[in-house]
Write a structure and sequence with these properties.
With 114 residues, this protein is α/β, with parallel strands linked by helices. Helix content is 19%, strand content 32%. The chain has two helices and eight strands. The strands form two sheets. A four-stranded mixed sheet has the order 1-2-6-3, with helices on one face.
């Protein structure tokens, strides 16, 4: 069930000649809409700390960007599951369902009502 609740954003890439036109944000918006319609409850991802310019980019797309090396906890009906992070990585998290929320390193409401 958890595999059908979470989707992972691997990367967003736009050709150098097309940057600055909002195409990356449009792509993320389209993915969010598509995965929300399919019933996914949250989108996760990660960025390398040596690319600090990506933090405001993903925040503008509605993601919470955790600190370098900060783990992400998933509060599930059966308990808490921790996603560790390497010191060189930052987790990204964006709730997709209205009953899912993120606060202070914890994603809550997963596998709850739909």
């Amino acid at each position: 069930m958890l595999a059908r609740a979470l989707v992972e954003l691997e990367a967003v890439s736009v050709a150098d000649t097309a940057r600055g036109q909002g195409l990356g944000h449009q792509l993320v918006d389209a993915l969010v809409r598509a995965y929300t319609l399919q019933g996914y409850q949250a989108m996760l991802g990660g960025i390398h700390t040596h690319k600090p310019h990506l933090k405001p980019y993903y925040e503008a797309d509605g993601f919470h960007v955790l600190g370098p090396g900060t783990p992400l906890d998933l509060q599930l009906p059966i308990g808490r599951l921790r996603y560790p992070a390497e010191p060189s990585m930052r987790h990204l998290v964006r709730p997709l369902a209205s009953h899912v929320a993120y606060q202070h390193g914890v994603l809550t409401g997963l596998l709850g009502r739909r």
